Amino acid sequence: xxxxxxxxxxxxxxxxxxxxxxxxxxxxxxxxxxxxxxxxxxxxxxxxxxxxxxxxxxxxxxxxxxxxxxxxxxxxxxxxxxxxxxxxxxxxxxxxxxxxxxxxxxxxxxxxxxxxxxxxxxxxxxxxxxxxxxxxxxxxxxxxxxxxxxxxxxxxxxxxxxxxxxxxxxxxxxxxxxxxxxxxxxxxxxxxxxxxxxxxxxxxxxxxxxxxxxxxxxxxxxxxxxxxxxxxxxxxxxxxxxxxxxxxxxxxxxxxxxxxxxxxxxxxxxxxxxxxxxxxxxxxxxxxxxxxxxxxxxxxxxxxxxxxxxxxxxxxxxxxxxxxxxxxxxxxxxxxxxxxxxxxxxxxxxxxxxxxxxxxxxxxxxxxxxxxxxxxxxxxxxxxxxxxxxxxxxxxxxxxxxxxxxxxxxxxxxxxxxxxxxxxxxxxxxxxxxxxxxxxxxxxxxxxxxxxxxxxxxxxxxxxxxxxxxxxxxxxxx
Length: 478
Description:
Blueprint: H1 2-23, H2 26-34, H3 39-52, H4 57-66, H5 68-77, H6 83-98, H7 104-116, E1 121-122, H8 125-129, E2 137-138, E3 144-146, H9 148-156, H10 160-167, E4 170-171, H11 176-179, H12 184-203, H13 216-246, H14 250-266, H15 269-284, H16 289-313, H17 328-335, H18 344-352, H19 357-371, H20 376-381, H21 391-410, H22 430-477
Antiparallel strand pairs: 1-4, 2-3
InterPro entries: PTS_EIIC, PTS_EIIC_3, PTS_IIC_cello, PTS_Sugar-EIIC/EIIB
Function: The phosphoenolpyruvate-dependent sugar phosphotransferase system (PTS), a major carbohydrate active -transport system, catalyzes the phosphorylation of incoming sugar substrates concomitant with their translocation across the cell membrane.
Membrane topology: Multi-pass membrane protein
């Protein structure tokens, strides 16, 4: 026990303080709280994604033929599909709000900078439509009415200058690619930098002050003018440098150098196991592991979710087409299923096998919250925090679930998660069906059984210990 206490002291005094210092820095706080503003659009967009891809062939075909599938897709694109916009605005907004200044102008400045730093163009649709592997020209229902090969033959007959014109990028438009998951890391960086620089300029007094007679709503906009002007001017110069010198833009560079490698790392088996271990690890020492890991991983796992949603929308959801295994729903609906540590097995033990009054009582309190993936009554009431009896299953269960879930997706036993963002409070099995269909719902049920099997022997030992204490106390009372 002394060694355990020494280890606990080491973690609390040497390991956790720098981690907590990092998590509570202004940028990470802005990231964590700013991303919350995206959640309604992610969830609403997921509903439209389901409606545009109803997993019933007859209904899906009818919706596609009627054009309603396209309407639902439009709603999905302008909600979930704009995830990077919500991130850029929300992060800068929270950063400046926390500094005590009017925050909305900073959020809008971040949005303007985010758009300014990217090419306002998209590839010509003809480029992807032409050739043997091209999509061809489709009608409203998605049926090919003119093949890619036939289209290429017709384009080849035109004068070269006309061919070049027809296949040149379409300019003067916003590229939806960067508004979605691919622009997430860039949006986070821009949001943080805009929030930081905007606040710094406000503190330094870089603002236009108007007479008191001017209405406050008008005066506030003039206050924001200098910081916004400086930020947008710098953004323009950065854009000009990358376009003129490197023939690219900042968002493409960030995606290639940072986001793609980091997404690959987060989507690996090692990444899944590390995340699964660290959530209960932090909780064991009384620190909110879910919040810490959520803040660190959301910038990578949400883009993974978005990529899967995009594949699902186009009926191309498979690992061969680049689908991710580890997404934000993998984190919410498997690693944290029924709460950090996947404690449903412990709940079942307390309800059906516990003999001590303490476990029976806390089990009745925890049952309903556990159905909605909340287990704070166990974490602090049982407690699981700093409890050596239950440390092994608390750490081990999420790791085993992460490992097995990764493998059943990797080997094609269940399909990849479809990108639907079920709220983290969605009950097990229901959430499985929403995020991956009936096979994923069955797998979630198996996970619940796994949790029960892992926790039972350790819970029984802890229950016997508590029962002996209660009996000893009762004997002394007599």
